[in-house]
Amino acid sequence: MIRARGLSRRFGDKRVLEKLDLDLQDGGFLVVTGANGSGKTTLLRLCAGLLAPTAGELRVETDRAGIGFLAHEPLVYRELSALENLDLYGRLYRVPERRERIGMLLERFGLWSVRNERAGSFSRGMLQRLALCRTLLHEPELLLMDEPFNALDAEGIELLGQQLEELRGGRTFLVATHDPDRLAPLASGSLALA
Amino acid sequence: MTYFHDVATLTRKDLLLELRARDTVPAMLLFVVSALVVFHFALPSESSRLAAYGLLWVALVFTALLGLVRAFSAERDQGLLDGLVLAPCDRSAIWLAKALSMLGFLVLAEIVALPAFAIFFHGIGWTTVAGVALANVGICTVGTLLAAMAAASRARELLLPLLFLPLAIPIVVGGVGAGVVENGGRYLGLLAVYDAIFAIICWASFEYVVTE
After folding, report:
1. Are strands A172-176 and A29-34 parallel, antiparallel or unpaired?
2. Cβ(A142)–Cβ(A82) under 8 Å?
3. Among the partner residues A49, A69, A75, nearest to B80 by beta-carbon distance
């Protein structure tokens, strides 16, 4: 699914990734760890196509429709409700049976009762749940997740754990985290960035 | 058809955001009326109508600029452009939707501005109205592309006017010309050609503006 050879990325004079080799097979679950500034987010953004490498080769065997990207920011409009945000992305991703899929995800992540409230009124944890709904909405084959457990409460962590377990196998995961132990049972490999 | 479906979805989102936040149109309305009031008192009573037309266009261009500065504010402040860029739609749909919503905001401002101009200065002819309509297309297409470029910069409030105002000169020339000369058709033609050329350039280049 992902193949990188000599992948490098610089921001001005700062080298963030340097000659990274990476192979992630279809259905794999790669956990990426590393200190702050080690390039975890940069690697995810490169794989998502949001950044271009400054050197090396990167091949991702899926198009934009097949990528689910969970970023640091929830990527939802604060002035729109949870339902309106998911409807917007559902339309852009041409999700079949959109309303049913949105309803199911909101229900699963415990946001159904606040579906008509603006995302701006949500706590950080609720925004993370909404971001997870957005990421999973179009059933992507490649999931790029940056600190997916960030800001979630115990219930949210359990929910996400269950969701990842259900999705594991059929999909490919590249997950950046500071807490690799939590993902250890699911992981097929790990990558430590220096 | 899916392209226009995406444009409609994104335009609806932009209009809904403005309806909820109300931070662009009220500012544009207030600015254009205030500017015309100031010009009314600043311009000596014996001044020609040509000077008044010039000031109308100054007010319209700067009102548009005020809206354009805020065009990508939601996306910029919340990092949302990544979400839109990742969606599997043609990226030019983001530009077209933004330009259409900006066009809507500008038309709203002009619905107030043109009658206010008629009250403070003198009546306007159909060529002026046609000039404004054609100029709107150019302002919104070029302005939206430049607003997206400026949004990535820290000095965006400074950068956008620096990029936009030189490119708006043909619009002002065409708009003023259409209003003041006897037969303004030539100037309307200039505006139409400007619109067509720049709409194509902006449509084709937006993808490179929002991606590396």
Report:
1. parallel
2. no
3. A75
**3-state per-residue secondary structure call for chain A:** CEEEEEEEEEECCEEEEEEEEEEECCCCEEEEEECCCCCHHHHHHHHHCCCCCCEEEEEECCCHHHEEEECCCCCCCCCCEHHHHHHHHHHHCCCCCHHHHHHHHHHHCCCHHHCCCEHHHCCHHHHHHHHHHHHHCCCCCEEEEECCCCCCCHHHHHHHHHHHHHHECCEEEEEECCCHHHHCCCCCEEEEEC
Q: Looking at A70-74, A167-171, B159-163, which range is the least confident one?
A: A167-171
For the segment B184-197, the average pLDDT, to the nearest whole number, is 94
Chain A partners within 8 Å of B84 (Cβ): 92
Question: Tens digit of pLDDT for each residue in A43-71?
Answer: 999 999 999 999 999 999 998 999 999 99
CB-based contacts of B4, cutoff 8 Å, min separation 6: none
The pLDDT of B158-166, averaged and rounded, is 94
Q: Which of A58-72, B39-53, B131-145 has the lowest mean pLDDT?
A: B39-53
Question: Please, which pLDDT band fits residue B148 given cuts at 50, 70 and 90?
Answer: very high
Q: Helix (H, G, I), strand (E, B), or coil: what is residue B140? A: helix
Chain A contact for B15 (CB, 8 A cutoff): no
Return the domain boundaries, chain B.
2-210
Tell me: pLDDT of A160 over 90. no
